[in-house]
Amino acid sequence: MARQSRISTRLSAASLVHLGAPRLADLLIEAGAGNANLKRRLRLELAAEAGPEVLALEIDKRLTALAAARTRVSWRKRGELIEDLEAHRRMIVERLAPEAPAEALAVLVRWFDLYPGLAARVKDTKGELVVGFETAAPDLFALAETAGEGAARELSDALRRRPQDYGRWIAAAGDAVSPDLARSFLASLDAASRKTPAGRNLVRRLADKAEDLDLWLSLVTPEQAGSPDIAADIARRLLAAGRVIEARAALETALSPSPSNRRWTFGHSPKEGAPRLTPAWEAASIDLLDAEGRRDEAQALRWELFERDLSAPVLRDYLARLPDFDDVEALDRAFAHAAVHPDFEAAMRFLMDWPAHREAAGLVLARPREARAARSMGADWAARLAQRYPEAAEILGYQA
C-alpha cells in the first residue's frame, strides 16, 4: 500500500507552502493573466520589497491613470474598481506609511483626490464608493497625526480645495481627528474658506473636533437655530459646558416661530401654529430642567412622554431617578398604562422589548381582536410567547 501523504489538500497558507516558491510563482502568473487586479497587487508587492520610493511611484502611476480615465464604470465593473482602490489604500497605509509617513500621507491625499472624478463616472446606486472613501477617512487623519507638520500642510490644502467632501470625511473619521489636529486645520483656513455653505460646514465640523464651542456656535445660522433638533444639539453642548442660561435660550428659540425658522413650524407664517417639536428637543428640555434644579418637573415630563410614546428608554430614565421600592410601584403603573394604551402595536412592542412577557400575554388575551390583526411583528411575538403563554401565542397566529 502506498504511504499516505501528510500534506493537506485544504487551501491554507500552511498547505500552499509545500508547493515551493517556484511553483507558486508560476501559479500566480497564470492566475494574473486573467485578473488585472491581481497583476496590480503582485506589482505592488514587488515594489514594496524594493523599497518605499519604488512603492510610492508604483501607487502614484495607478492613481494617475485612474484620475485621467473618462470611461463610465458600469455596475458590473464597480466591484472590481472598488477592490482596486482598497488594495492601493491598504498598501499606502500598511506598507508605505511605516517606512515613509510623510510620503504616504501625500500619496493618500492623492488617493482621496480621485473621489470627484470617480463619483461622476461610476454607477454607484448602492453607495459603495461613498462608503469606501468614508471608511478610509480615519486612516487619512491618523496618518496626518504622525506625518509631521510639513506633510499635514498638504492635507490642509486639500481641505480648502474640497470643503464639502472633507467636511463629510472629517465626520466619518471620528476620533481619528484629534482636537490638536483640528485646531491646526482651523489655523490654516483663511476667512475666504468660510464664505460658502460648504466652507462653513467644514469649519463647523473642525470646531466640533477642536472642542471650540464658541466658534461652533458662531457658525449656526438663525434658520438652523430654529430647528428643534439643532436647538437641542446646541442646548446639550451648552449644558455640557455648564452654560445653563444659554441652553434655555437655545431651546426657546425653536419655540418661538419667526421668519428665520419658518420651515420648522406647522404653517407658513409665525402666526400659524407652534413649531414641530421632536424627541431630541424634548429630551434636551428634560436635561435642562435637571440642570436648573427643577427635578420634580423633569420627572413629571419624563412620565408624560412615556405615557404618550411608551418609550422604554424614557421609562428607564424615569425609574432610575426614583427612590428604592418606588420604582417597583411605578413600573406596575407603567404596565397598567400600556395595557389600556390605544395603540395596541406600540403597547405590545414596549412590553415585549422591556421584556414583560406576562403582561404582553395578558394584553393579547384582553384585546384579542386587535391581536389577530395582521402586523409585522406578530409572528415573532407569538414565537417568543409560545412556550409559556400558548393561548396568547395562538391568538397571535402561532403555528408549531
How would you describe this protein?
The structure is a single chain. This protein has 400 residues and is an all-alpha fold. Among the domains are: 33-175; 294-395, no CATH class. 70% of the residues lie in helices and 0% in strands. The protein has helices at 13-16, 21-32, 36-50, 52-68, 75-96, 101-113, 115-121, 128-146, 149-161, 163-173, 179-188, 197-209, 213-218, 222-225, 228-240, 244-253, 279-291, 295-309, 312-320, 326-339, 344-353, 357-366, 368-372, 378-385, 390-395. Helix 15 packs parallel to helix 17 and helix 16 packs antiparallel against helix 17 (279-291). The radius of gyration is 30 Å and the shape is extended. Residues 264-272 have low confidence and may be disordered.
Q: Write the element-wise H/E pattern from the N-terminal end onward.
A: HHHHHHHHHHHHHHHHHHHHHHHHH
The number of helices is: 25
Largest sheet, if any? none
What gap, in angstroms, lies between the N and C termini?
A: 55 Å
What is the number of strand segments?
0
Q: Average pLDDT across residues?
A: 87
Give Rg in angstroms: 30 Å
Q: What is the overall silhouette?
A: extended
Strand content: under 5%
Summarize the amount of helix as a percent range.
Answer: 55-70%
Poorly predicted runs are 264-272
Structural class: mainly alpha
Short recap of the structure:
With 400 residues, the chain is an all-alpha fold.
